[in-house]
Amino acid sequence: MQLAVLDLAGTTMADDGLVLAALRAGLRAARVRVDGPGYPALDRQARSTMDRSAITVLGELLDGDMYRARRAHSAFTEYLTAAADDGRVRPVPGAPQALDALHDAGLKIAVICGFDPDLRDRLVVALDFGARVDLLLSPADVDGRGLPEPDLLHAAIRRTGCTASQVAVAGDATADIDAAVRAGAGLVIGVRGGAHGEPRLRAAGADAVIDSVADLPALLGLPG
Question: Which of 13, 83, 181, 184 lies most in the core, judged by the most C-beta atoms within 10 Å?
Fold first, then answer.
């Protein structure tokens, strides 16, 4: 392996309900009652799709009303930015050490997510990942084509000069797995404890499933 492509929220950044809380803040800004009778269905829909582009998810939750979706997205972004500023954003335990181990072994590291670049970069700074990551990619960097489309992975492969067979992809959601399979990644790894459980990750095509991104170096046979 020459390149590790890692998902952000839920895989390298601890979620703990933070992204879902941001989505609720966005829906409130769009005048959706999150304590009303219709919210449980929206909550289930959000949980099943929140691994994709944030603006896409909000647009779907708001029945395609992109005016309201953009308003919701602004509130979503403000919520997560405030969380970063307040110290509520933290890495998954062992993630920084895993990134260091990958770098020490000569792998390049790309982090992908469904957030806009400004928010993504703010979160990466809050996580102290900046010096540990070679490439950051969001849907905005590939004409808006986020997961489960393989465009983010194709861009990472192209920009780092690797071939698909030299790439290991790790993520906690089926969209990560689907994109990796479609991109022809050499190793597709599901991570437990995030958006989707092991059965769904394996059904989507994961070659292996690990408890945490902290276990990735050992899976690749690298020093801990």
Answer: 13
SS (H, E, C) the chain: CCEEEEECECCCECCCCHHHHHHHHHHHHCCCCCCCCCHHHHHHHHHHHCCCCHHHHHHHHCCCCHHHHHHHHHHHHHHHHHHHHCCCCCECCCHHHHHHHHHHCCCEEEEECCCCHHHHHHHHHHHCCHHHCCEEECHHHHCCCCCCCCHHHHHHHHHHCCCHHHEEEEECCHHHHHHHHHHCCCEEEEECCCCCCHHHHHHHCCCEEECCHHHHHHHCCCCC
Mean pLDDT by 10 residues, the chain (224 residues): 95 90 93 83 76 87 94 96 96 97 97 94 96 95 93 97 97 94 98 86 97 97 81
Quick one: tokens of 149? Answer: 């489309």
pTM of structure: 0.92
